Amino acid sequence: MHISKPTRTVSNKTMKHDNNETTEKVKAILNKHGVSERQHIKTVASILNIAYVSSRQKFSSDRAWTNDQLSRIAAYFREPIESLVCNYRPSVGNGILHVSGMPKRCVCEIGLPVTVPEAEELVTYQEGDVFIVLPGSQIRNDIRYFSVSNIRLLPPPVIAALDDNPDVPQSIADVFSRKGISVKQFVDSETLIAEAKYENFEYYILDWVLGDDKTAEAAISIIRSELSASVPIIVLTGELRTDKVQDSDLAKMVQLYDISVLEKPALLETIATTVYKRLFFRSLR
């Protein structure tokens, strides 16, 4: 599979074409494959999974053809897309590459629908705004797959984990690594803040109580005022029901700095999945 920097984006849903010229090209493919003229409208309606009346409007030039529809017709008859679309360029999308136990963020070119995805080295399907890229041998039968090319891998997201007990950041790193997320581990807030000024952390997971008479409040304040007003911050605490932590203090932090608070022992697999969805299923380009 070729890996390179992707080219410009072309929408395969909204680009419209000269209807008369395109309709004649569609008819030519149908005729070439033995579809009688009386069956043209019905056949295209079936291929595109649209109503008969919508298909008829396309043949009468009352509705435009789109790249997506033309791609599906070409793929159905195993014809090159260029036979229907001049100067066709694949769409470029954010992707998640699954070829090992660890997902990787990427940008890739999405091509035509594939009729036999299990025969392809890699295929992709759309989930929300992201394209999931996986081997053809791992497909499911209930999903529509596309060809994929020019995959450009992106660096893994890096997050910061802070706890004065080094076992906690280590546990976070162990769990998050399986989600393709790199974790920088810290045991004091001063070191974290110093490194955060040069490292683009995409998430923070901070223990609230950091030794005797010290909390993460100062670190959170600096992150929000000097580094990022929107980067997600999760605060963990195991002392909500003790005298060490006042619920009102955490409530104030939530109101001032838009953080999330979770009690320890935290369900790290659940947190990792939440962070994974936040960091991987968003625009990266």
From TrEMBL:
<keyword id="KW-0597">Phosphoprotein</keyword>
<dbReference type="InterPro" id="IPR013975">
    <property type="entry name" value="Tscrpt_reg_BetR_N"/>
</dbReference>
<dbReference type="InterPro" id="IPR011006">
    <property type="entry name" value="CheY-like_superfamily"/>
</dbReference>
<protein>
    <submittedName>
        <fullName>Two-component transcriptional response regulator</fullName>
    </submittedName>
</protein>
<dbReference type="InterPro" id="IPR001789">
    <property type="entry name" value="Sig_transdc_resp-reg_receiver"/>
</dbReference>
<dbReference type="GO" id="GO:0000160">
    <property type="term" value="P:phosphorelay signal transduction system"/>
</dbReference>
<feature type="domain" description="Response regulatory">
    <location>
        <begin position="158"/>
        <end position="279"/>
    </location>
</feature>
<feature type="modified residue" description="4-aspartylphosphate">
    <location>
        <position position="207"/>
    </location>
</feature>
<dbReference type="Pfam" id="PF08667">
    <property type="entry name" value="BetR"/>
</dbReference>
